[in-house]
Description:
single chain, alpha+beta, FAD/NAD(P)-binding domain, nine-stranded mixed beta sheet
Amino acid sequence: MKEQKKVTVLGGGLAGLTAAIHLSKYGFEVCVIEKEAYPRHKVCGEYISAEILPYLKSLELDLEELSPEHISKLIYSTTSGNKIETELDLGGIGLSRYALDHFLYQKAVKIGVKVLQDTVVNVVFIEEKFRVDTINSRSIVSDLVLGAYGKRSNLDKKLKREFIENKNGWLGIKSHYSNSNFPEDTVALHNFEGGYCGLSKTETGAVNVCYLATYKSFKKHKDPEAFKLNVLYKNPYLKEFFENSTQLFDKDLSIAQISFERKSIVEDHILMLGDAAGLIHPLCGNGMAMAMHSAKIASEAIINNYNDFKLDRMALEQEYRSQWKSNFSSRLKFGGILQRVLLNPILAESTQKVVSIIPSILPFIIKKTHGSPIV
């Protein structure tokens, strides 16, 4: 009897769980290590581009089971309140990470994926095998390791990844609000000085509010509430929303030291997925879809390069790098340009005026940051 192929996934978010499900369906023995218990809230925009839905259905993951909101419109405003609206060709859905991650976790466990609640402290690659050590004294040996642990981790320091050594001036804040006037079919992106804020409804009817701000702009104020009152309120649409909403969380969730720097796709033979491989600017609105798409790319590269239970690791890593670049590099680059433009008040207002004169520019921008349906 041939030995089963073993994969360890570091992180049980969207990318990690999707890859685990994909590989398990192809006969791999998969272990996911996740430090947090399910279900849980996470700092996230909670809008999923519909481009990813055909792929998920191919894995028998039908997100309609969660009764998501269906989103077909985009509203964007500058700090001064100038607004433009457009239809989203593909559209998307609004779904909380609380529901989605738990859904994927349950599906993974059902098909035999082993999920451990633990924290990884070290990963060693020796003689074509990985050893993953955890804080609870577990030591797991596998043929492959996927890094799907999010934006930053102590593992990044262990692996001596370049971006982790640099101080990053961004932080994210997220909460849910009750607001019956916010439209179910719309995702809104509103600029403010030093950042931007996304709003969209989730499956519960709550509006997810998630904003990204520079630390430079945030540190002038004592806390998120003061920042909201003194900075976010300067955008009239955000002011109106907050004044007519009730916060549902006891307090905001936050994450600091967010990096948009280029990251290595493969690090010491670990395939990096999702935010661990590269973070697209939230203005582009499809980070969740890209995370799950990266799981597809990695899983298919692994399957393609296992022949008679022998792994061609070099070919696997080359294929993964090539497919990542083909699918994401231009979108990440364009997202960076878009962010720089929209965070400059003069450029943002000028761009808004151009778009109002030539409306076809906005669908072009959306197309540059989104993909086609993924099958």
